[in-house]
Write a structure and sequence with these properties.
heterodimer; A: 162 residues; alpha+beta; Arc Repressor Mutant, subunit A; Glutaredoxin; 5-stranded mixed sheet; 7 helices; 12% strand; elongated; B: 462 residues; alpha/beta; Rossmann fold; Ubiquitin-like (UB roll); de novo design (two linked rop proteins); 3 domains; 4-stranded parallel sheet; 11 strands
């Protein structure tokens, strides 16, 4: 279900552009933020509001690495393993998360709490190794810090800002 | 709260132009900005003739800070003065070059400095609409910039009749959704138009045919953040800070195996050796230096013997590398250069938009080929095959991503050929128990796509 607030946001975003089509990628991401993934309903709603056929929305989705057609965990752990993070232990952080949670790249824990991803450079190179949890950055990571963060996340109320 | 690190340890050698307001409490707020010369440049610019503004920009020697290093004033001057079409200013905040994290701190700590630069740029080319294309992962920064925009609108620095000048300018943020290629200006424009982010043929350049086919200037966050300082102090002042035709300061992101990683603002032309040894405190843990990536992963790698070079566009070009995005990555003696080449290629293979065959096929092929060196599947001809593939990507693609993949690979193959030979001789990585980092084999199924069939090993002889 797409909320009224999201529909209002769609209208506000579309109004920024002289050509409505420009809003497709932002609307897809905002829809995913609310629903958890890009749903069929979101595609239809965006296509209708932007004035294109659904296929013209769908063809943008696979281009962007943040967009997904399936739900992920409540907390999506995105661990960078690109060069600066790799040099300071980013791969070990990814392996640590993988072992701790029992999941691999782009997989979700059975209880739906955590998913894990190996991602490219997040722009946190001077705080390497780093990861994002949903949209929040965590830097200068160690396995201990990761463990502490996972414990904190397990206790958090759903939907609250970390 | 999330752990937003302050990646700015500071150094007495810094020249603080762009970062002068960092550290002031609430530096991102409009009131703090106004209390520290904020929007004075805009007032001055609105009383200048647009052509005089562009002249000042040319004189400053400000070269693009995104990576390509094209003189910003010259780029602005390509916009036609007379046209029926609307004109646009686009700020490229899609910072995704590995090793680079400077636009992030500029937006976080001084967003109004960026906004002021964009508005002045709009006035200089007589555009009335602008977009700040921010990478999707930088959501918290987009919120900071949105707040700054709302404040600027509220006090009349944006919108209609700015400061009573008669000049209108509207500015919005636009979120990306994860795509390195959208940092390439024409791919960004396609993405901003709602299409897949494939690049466009150049010429025509965006200054003539840009957003929605209209004249557009598109500049990096750091480039635009410099504009207010050039207007207030003059182009000549700015040029003197750096070098003639390469003026100003630069935010260098020092990362990797360095004692004090961080973002440091230093004059253009600052010596790389001093950046590593004095500013950065030297290689970490007292280790020896093996190599340096001077300006983001797209640059040819330098050996430890090549660090007596000035950090400016021409000096680095002369020794066969690039100043690029200012992302300086330090590699210590225990770094496997073969693995470094592989990881860099894995990035480009993932980010290749797929349009051009040499890049799409070449990066994937090179990634698989470089993986062979980690085990005993490597063939004696593999280093030469890799060079051949890389040279067949270089210069043969529509956009610089192909070059960005080829150049570091070629530099590592040439300058560290002995490491490839050693891998082949041993049948394994000689660094596997040294330094940080797992062997490629141990990473399991972390493929860049969720399709396991895409990570099949290459057939022998390919």
């Amino acid at each position: 279900m797409i909320s009224e607030a999201l529909k209002k946001k769609f209208d506000a975003v579309i109004a920024r552009y002289p050509v409505k089509r420009s809003a497709i990628a932002p609307l897809l991401l905002f829809a995913q933020d609310e629903i958890g993934y890009v749903s069929d309903e979101a595609i239809e709603e965006i296509a209708r509001r932007v004035g294109v056929r659904p296929i013209e929305v769908i063809e943008d989705i696979s281009y962007y690495s943040m967009l997904r057609r399936q739900p992920r965990g409540r907390y999506n752990l995105q661990v960078c393993t690109n060069i600066s993070c790799m040099l300071r232990g980013g791969e070990e952080i990814f392996q640590h998360c993988s072992k701790k949670l029992g999941i691999g790249h782009q997989q979700t824990t059975p209880d739906g709490m955590f998913s894990l991803e190996e991602v490219e450079c997040l722009g946190a190179c001077c705080g390497a190794p780093a990861m994002q949890v949903n949209y929040d950055y965590y830097e200068n990571l160690t396995p201990e810090k990761v463990d502490a963060l996972l414990e904190k996340l397990k206790k958090k109320e759903p939907g609250s800002r970390i | 709260m999330a752990d937003y690190q302050n990646s700015m340890p500071g150094s007495s050698l810094e020249v603080k132009v762009l970062t002068r307001r960092f550290g002031i409490p609430n530096s991102a707020s409009l009131d703090v900005y106004l209390a520290h010369e904020g929007y004075q440049a805009l007032k001055k610019a609105l009383e200048m003739k647009p052509d005089d503004l562009i002249q000042e920009m040319k004189k400053s020697g400000l070269r693009g800070r995104g990576g390509a290093g094209f003189n910003a004033g010259v780029k602005w001057s390509f916009v036609p003065r007379q046209t029926d079409k609307p004109k646009y200013v686009v700020c490229n905040a899609d910072e995704s070059e590995p090793g680079t994290c400077k636009d992030r701190v500029l937006m976080e700590h001084d967003p109004h400095q960026l906004l002021e630069g964009i508005i002045i740029a709009g006035y200089a080319i007589q555009a009335h609409q602008g977009y700040i294309y921010i990478r999707g992962e930088y959501r918290y920064l987009m919120e900071i910039v949105d707040r700054a925009l709302a404040d600027a609108y509220g006090r009349g620095y944006l919108g209609k009749n700015i400061l009573g000048s008669g000049f209108d300018f509207d500015l919005y943020t636009h979120t990306g959704a994860g795509a390195y290629e959208c940092g390439e200006e024409t791919a960004l424009l396609n993405s901003l138009e709602g299409l897949r982010g494939y690049p466009r043929v150049k010429p025509p350049f965006p200054a003539l045919i840009g957003l929605y086919g209209c004249p557009t200037i598109i500049n990096n966050v750091e480039t635009l953040s410099n504009v207010s300082h050039i207007v207030l102090n003059g182009g000549e002042w700015f040029a003197k800070l750096g070098k003639p035709s390469d003026g100003g300061t630069r935010l260098f992101c020092l990362s990797g195996h360095i004692a004090r990683p961080g973002i440091y603002e230093l004059p253009i032309g600052f010596p790389l050796r001093r950046l590593i040894e004095e500013v950065g405190g030297g290689v970490w843990h007292g280790k020896r230096l093996k190599g340096v990536i001077p300006g983001g992963s797209s640059c040819p790698v330098l050996t430890a013997d090549e660090i007596d070079v000035a950090l400016d566009f021409d000096s680095l070009a002369r020794i066969g590398s690039m100043l690029g995005s200012g992302g300086v990555v330090i590699l210590d003696e225990d770094t496997c250069m073969v693995k470094t080449a592989w990881r860099i290629m894995k990035f480009y293979a993932h980010e290749s938009c797929g349009w051009c065959i040499p890049c799409r096929e070449g990066t994937m092929w090179l990634k698989s080929l470089l993986e062979r060196f980690q085990g005993d599947g490597g063939l004696p001809q593999d280093p030469d095959t890799a060079l051949d593939i890389a040279y067949n990507i270089l210069g043969k693609t529509l956009c610089p991503l192909g070059d960005a993949a080829a150049m570091p690979t070629i530099s590592i193959l040439k300058k560290f050929r002995h490491e490839f030979e050693e891998h082949l001789k041993l049948g394994r990585c000689p660094y596997e128990n040294r330094g940080s980092g797992l062997r490629v084999k141990d990473l399991g199924s972390s493929s860049w796509t969720s399709d396991p069939s895409s990570s099949q090993p290459l057939a022998p002889g390919t």
